[in-house]
Amino acid sequence: MYVKAHFLKSKEESKTDFRLSVSKAKTFDDCKAKFKFSYIEKLPKKEWDFHVFGKYLHDILEIFHKKLIENPTLSFEPLMKECVEISTEKYKDSLNKDQKHECNSIIKTYLELINEQKNNGKLPNVIGVEKDFYIDLNGKVLLNGFIDRVQIDPDGMLHVADYKTTKDKKYLKDFFQLLTYAYVLMLEDPSIKKIRTSFILLRHDFDHLTHEYTRKDVEPIGKKFLEYAEKINNEKIWRPNPQFLCKYCDFLENCSAGESYLIKRGIISQKKQKETFGLGSW
User: Fold this and answer.
1) Are 153 and 181 members of one domain?
2) Per DSSP, which regions of 112-202 are E strands?
3) Which of 60, 185, 206, 233 is the Cys-Cys partner for 87 at CB 3.0 to 4.6 Å?
4) Contact 15, 136 (CB under 8 A)
């Protein structure tokens, strides 16, 4: 399949209404029913504590690096203090005491890390945060998304990274997201022959899960998203995929298969299920 891909300045320039992102594709792979509830029926989603915490930390780091990009001479500690205050005010109605405490610990670790990198001459040059992209694929699909962080490493290699607040590394086995981001940057700059990509684990002392990709590695990505579009357009059944993670699904009360799976395995009780939904924060 030949793929003609080109950047658009905004989604409004797109000639197609069919939009895809990494998260949409992943949802379709994980559970067809969840995809239908989320993107077709557009049912309301819950505000989970771990989502709030993730957005809070992302926001602090985004503001911090944006300000550093604008003025690289700023001192790290007072700047970070300012950024934490800005984000805390923004999320004050959603955060709890434990989340604030954990965030302070993570930010302290980050400051220690970047100060050490600076002293050793190994501080990466962050050149972009929350980089958005809109890519037309054959006039059929608008591939869109945001990249948390783009930097140039001390060895000169371009490095694209995504922040993760997961507590368990075992859930980070799928690197399709990073492959997609590598595809985006290589499409943007044809001179790039190799790119470094990482998941940055905020709750694990900023440990990196890193892979490097060549142009040959990322070539199939455009085709892959066109294939996703075809599968989604042809889907008729929207079959659920009951599993342990249904416990954290926004649409569990709409899915009898997921509910039954959790009840049968004692993960939730039938009484608790009836009491919980309808009372949550939406």
Assistant:
1) yes
2) 125-137, 141-152, 158-164, 194-201
3) 60
4) yes
